[in-house]
Amino acid sequence: MNECPDKEGIKTPKVLEIFSSNRAYLLKEAFREFWSYTYAGWVKRYLDRWFWWATHSRLKPMRDFSWMLRRHQDGLMNYFRMPIHNGTVEGLNNKAKVISHKAYGFRTAKSYIRNLYHCMADLPLPKTVHTFA
User: Fold this and answer.
1) Full-prediction pTM beyond 0.90?
2) In angstroms, what CA-CA distances link 109 with 105, 112, 123?
3) Are residues 23 and 75 both part of a single domain?
4) How many domains does the chain have?
């Protein structure tokens, strides 16, 4: 039988390492289902079952990860109660940063703020007196 040395020098069968990596893979794949739930009650029930499985898996990284999830369980449950993400806010912040980079020619903060309001609301550009051909 193939054997490999452990940290302490004890030889463990390769089969056991295959089983532990298989358990880790199954836990990881099972956790993907967590994000498919929509109701907080079902999420809590699933998280409790997955937590039990992960803490009894005899895999220290999985136990550490499951305890971290348990510590942050309230925040995770809040996402399922009110699924809001910060993507929109980050997009607006990026747009404001682009406008501020374009605004080096503005002389006052008032004109910069006007430009922010104008660009953030996607207002049409005013008709100019001059037309360029």
Assistant:
1) no
2) 11, 5, 20
3) yes
4) 2
